[in-house]
Amino acid sequence: MVSQTDHNTLPVIQHPLYGESKRSIIHQQEDVLIVHEHLNQAATPSRLYRPADHCFCFVIKGEVHLQSEQHSVNLKPYQAVWLPIQQSSVLTLLTPNATLCTIRFPKMTLTNQPQTLQKVSTGTVDSKLEKKQVQVWPLWESNTARICIEKYPAHYSEALYYQKAASHYVLPLKGSAYLAKKNAAAIPYTEFGQFIPARYTSGIINPDDDHLITLTVIVSQQQKLKGRVIVLNRPS
């Protein structure tokens, strides 16, 4: 896991693919690799994937078609699939531009993994209503990791907390989000989201009159995801 220093200083690493298409590495450690791919249809009409590890492919913007050796699926924003391991999958853009978030788990043994190219979204899973009216759609979860879409109500302010052993990544999909920190002013989330290491005190704030929707990824190196500790003072 990264340290708090890494959390504050590591930049997003960007490099071009073809033409206007580019790849942005958001976070890279031994347990998880999070990448954004910004694809332009004129420069990159299709792209080949052959992951060596478990890889979750989530569409942020645009529409794409995925074709593996045995299956095919169309994906719209906020829909996702697991890519088949050690097999070729061809992604074809159906819109002029598309943005993807791929989440790889290089050294983790995952359980409850859906079949490859089986579409998951808020329309395929049941939501859960948690504290303070936060609605959660668990796209996938196991003992050591969870990927979900979360919907926060207007003017939501979360109590500061930290995870004992789990790190998490939060990407705003709709609305504005601010990262509250202990003894510091809240900062806005960027277009790349925010990776928050274990034992880092933070909270999420939605200052808008409308709801906030995020993609949230939680990863633990232990055999459980529990261990959330509330800090007494609240974000300002």
Structure report:
With 236 residues, the protein is mainly beta. The protein folds into two domains: 4-105, Jelly Rolls (Sandwich); 128-230, Jelly Rolls. Helix content is 3%, strand content 48%. The chain has one helix and 21 strands. It has one helix spanning 4-9; strands at residues 13-16, 22-28, 33-40, 46-49, 54-61, 64-67, 72-75, 80-83, 89-93, 97-105, 128-129, 135-141, 145-152, 161-163, 166-174, 178-181, 184-188, 194-196, 202-205, 212-220, 228-230. The protein has a six-stranded antiparallel beta sheet with strand order 1-2-3-10-5-8, with no helix packed on it. Strands 11-12-13-20-15-18 form a six-stranded antiparallel beta sheet, with no helix packed on it. Strand 12 and strand 13 (145-152) form a beta hairpin. The longest helix has 6 residues, at 4-9. The radius of gyration is 18 Å and the shape is globular. The two termini are 28 Å apart. The model is unreliable at 1-9 (pLDDT under 50).
